[in-house]
Amino acid sequence: MHSRLVISNFQLFSMMLLFLFGSATVVSIGQEARQSAWIAVLVGMLMYLPFFALFTLLYKRHPEETFPTILKIAFGKLVGKIICMLYVLYFIYIGARVLRDFCDLLLLTSMRDTPLVIVGGVMTLVIAYACFLEVEPIARASVLLLVVFVGVIVLVFFLLFFSDVMNPDHMHPILAEGIGSIFRAVFPLILTFPFGEMVVFLMFNQFIKGEKSLRKVGTRAVVIGGVMLSMLSLINLTTLGQHLVESSTIPLLVTVQQVNIRDIIQRMDTLAISVLIIGGFAKVTIFAYAAILGIKDIYQTRSHKLSLLLVTVSILTTTIFMSDNFVKHLEIGLKIVPVWIHIPMQFVIPIVTLVMIQLKSRKKSRST
C-alpha cells in the first residue's frame, strides 16, 4: 500500500492551476482562430474535461497503485516498464521545452548578454532543490505561488483598465474565419497544450485520497484554468489588437507594457516577468518530479538523489541543445510536438491502458 494524504486537495488544485498557466501565459495559443482565440481556449477546455475524467478511471479498480504499476498490470511487467520509461522521457523532454521557454523569455527581455547555459543552470538548480525537498514542500509552495500569480494578474487587469488602453472593438469580427477555425485551433494544439499535459498528474494519485479526488480537483482546475487563460487571451486582444498579438513573441509582456496611469504607474515589465517565471518554475518542477517518480518505480530504488541528478541534468542538457533559436523552438513546439508526441502520450496510451485494465478485470471476474 502506498502513502496517502501527503498533500491536500487544495494543494493539488494549486499545483494543477499553476501547471496550466505555466508556459501557456508566454505562448499565445489559439491564434488559428484569430479574434476568436479566447473562444477556442474555452472549447478546448470543454473538450478535454471528459478525457481527464476518463483517465482517472484507471485507478477505479486499483486505487492503491501508482501509475507505473497500473501500466504493468495492463501490459505486463516488461512492456509496462518500457511504457513507463517512455513517460519518463516524455516528462523530461516537455519539462526541458518549458524550461527553454522561460530561459528565452529572460534572454529576450532582461538578460540579453547572459549565456543560455547560465540562465538554464540557475533555474535548474532551483527546480532541483524543490524536487529534493519532495512533494509536500512543492505542494505547500504552490499555494503561496498561486496566490501571488493570480493576485498580480488581477492587479494588471485593473491597471490596464484604468490606463484606458483596452478597446472592445478589437474583438470584432468574432468568428470571422468561420467555426472551422475554432476547431483547427483546438485540435491538436489547445487540446494537447496546455490541457493534455495534465496527464502528468496521473503520477500523483499516490499522494492524495484517490481517483475521485483526482477527478474532482482536476475538473475544477481545468475549468478555472481554462476560463482564466481565455480571459488572458481576451485581455491581450482588447489591449493590443489582433495584428500586434500575432506579431508579438510574448503578447502578455507587450500587454503589460501598455500600463500607464498618469505617467506615474508604468513599466510593469519586471513584475510581469516575475509572475511568468513562477508559472514556468511550477510546471518544470512538476514534470521533473513525475520523471523522478517514474525512474524510482522502474528501477525499484529509493535513491532519490540519484534519480534527481539524472532527471535534472537531462532536462538542462536537452534545454540547451534542443534548438538554435526561439523562433525554431516555438515552431517545433507548436506544430510537430502536439501531433507526434503529445497525442500518443496524452491520449492514445492512457485510453489503451484503460481498455486493457477493463478487459483484464472482466476476464478475472468471469474466472472467479
From TrEMBL:
The protein's superkingdom reads Bacteria
Answer yes or no on keyword Transport: yes
- Residues annotated as coiled-coil are none
Listed GO biological process terms? spore germination
Locations listed in the record: Membrane
Q: How does it sit in the membrane?
A: Multi-pass membrane protein
Keyword Cell membrane attached: no
Q: Which UniProt keywords apply?
A: Germination, Membrane, Transmembrane, Transmembrane helix, Transport
A single Gene Ontology CC annotation of this entry is: membrane
Q: Which InterPro entries match?
A: Spore_GerAB (IPR004761)
Q: What is its main location?
A: membrane
Q: Give the transmembrane region(s).
A: 12-31, 37-58, 78-96, 116-135, 142-162, 182-205, 217-237, 271-294, 306-327, 339-359
Q: So what family is this one in?
A: Belongs to the amino acid-polyamine-organocation (APC) superfamily. Spore germination protein (SGP) (TC 2.A.3.9) family.
Query: Can you name this protein?
Result: Spore germination protein KB
